[in-house]
Amino acid sequence: xxxxxxxxxxxxxxxxxxxxxxxxxxxxxxxxxxxxxxxxxxxxxxxxxxxxxxxxxxxxxxxxxxxxxxxxxxxxxxxxxxxxxxxxxxxxxxxxxxxxxxxxxxxxxxxxxxxxxxxxxxxxxxxxxxxxxxxxxxxxxxxxxxxxxxxxxxxxxxxxxxxxxxxxxxxxxxxxxxxxxxxxxxxxxxxxxxxxxxxxxxxxxxxxxxxxxxxxxxxxxxxxxxxxxxxxxxxxxxxxxxxxxxxxxxxxxxxxxxxxxxxxxxxxxxxxxxxxxxxxxxxxxxxxxxxxxxxxxxxxxxxxxxxxxxxxxxxxxxxxxxxxxxxxxxxxxxxxxxxxxxxxxxxxxxxxxxxxxxxxxx
Length: 362
Fold this sequence. Notes:
By secondary structure, the chain is of the alpha/beta class. It is built from 15 helices and 10 strands. It has helices at about 15-25, 60-70, 95-110, 120-130, 145-150, 170-180, 200-210, 220-230, 235-240, 250-255, 275-280, 290-295, 315-320, 330-335, 350-355, and strands at about 5-10, 30-40, 75-80, 115, 135, 160-165, 185-190, 260, 305, 345. Strands 1-2-3-4-5-6-7-8 form an 8-stranded parallel barrel, surrounded by 5 helices. Strand 2 (about 30-40), helix 2 (about 60-70) and strand 3 (about 75-80) form a beta-alpha-beta unit. It is globular, with a radius of gyration of 20 Å.
């Protein structure tokens, strides 16, 4: 029996998309669509995204029908509840009873997978629901085996996978070591386009899950920091720790078991998730990576740049052959990214005037 690896994608709540995923899974690919994910954007127990950026989930009866379609096609539904902070309400008895009631609702409609960041919430849910499978969220910034073992103390028997810090996609030596020693399967984000070693990562997540009604003009404050950094130095685009479809096999060889397509915000901008899934399942793609990373949507945020995948073949060969990690500490004497920035261009629809809107301002 051959080994199978697993792909997680945002849910668009269309049964025809689930059916298309199921059709892809019938092919002889080593990667299968295993899971779709989402959350209630207007609920107390939601995720690290602005609610306005996410369409509302279906009404209960329609949601049950959709989840039944997922079950029928052997695709899981993962509810994302990856707020890092609940303003310490997670330590109150009343709040605890509320979250148990909410998770019971999810359980009753056959949702068995939940992504969580907060350790106390992990403990509450895992203690009450033995059949809920917990995914440790990417927002926890897990970058060591010690961190993985630490989270295991909160829910020893329920953890199904753990997402590693995105920057570790470029630290191949570290990945080999962690995967060989971890008791929990690891997962990686495929289409990350954040700045490598971003100093504002935690602040950005905190900003997203603590929205105020009076931040309209500053909604893209941290996103513009990332964009501005890349505009001023196109080598930063090359440094971004994304994973190309052509490099999937390298991570399979490392025994990374799970992969995720991010950017669920693109659902509102006509994302083509079936096309994205098929490309990563086939490991074939030589065109613009940022079209792929933005799920072939029309979203503008995060879609300023363009770089052909085929232009990075020798660069990725170098990444997987070197014996030291990609980090700011090593950039000063490595300089490999600086040799490839010439292949980066701006999205053909982006004008110089548009770029001014993405420059970071305090």
